[in-house]
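Structure first, sequence second, as always.
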């Protein structure tokens, strides 16, 4: 993925080895949305989760790791490729891209 190449160029191999932004948490999960009747974006295979332990579903910016300034470049790289952060847009589900 271009995103991973750009992130590696931005952060370097040492941060990639130890950074939580590189902890894969899932993508395709054929299921409906929680509490609804529509398909989850994971059900369509068009959503990716990273570092679910540090960015739990209902955590807002006061608690989520990805809300910290050190991840601004991470989000910029994803946005350059057309992806959206629910954490930045709605202040929840920070693991979700």
């Amino acid at each position: 993925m271009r995103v991973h190449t750009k992130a590696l160029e931005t952060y370097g191999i040492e941060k990639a080895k130890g950074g939580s932004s590189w902890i894969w948490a899932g993508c395709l999960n054929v299921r409906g949305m929680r509490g609804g009747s529509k398909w989850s974006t994971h059900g369509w295979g068009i959503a990716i989760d990273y570092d679910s332990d540090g960015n739990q579903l209902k955590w807002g910016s006061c608690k989520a790791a990805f809300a910290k300034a050190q991840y601004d470049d991470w989000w910029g790289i994803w946005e350059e490729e057309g992806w959206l952060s629910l954490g930045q847009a709605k202040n929840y589900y920070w693991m979700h891209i």
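Margin note: Residues 2-90 form one domain.
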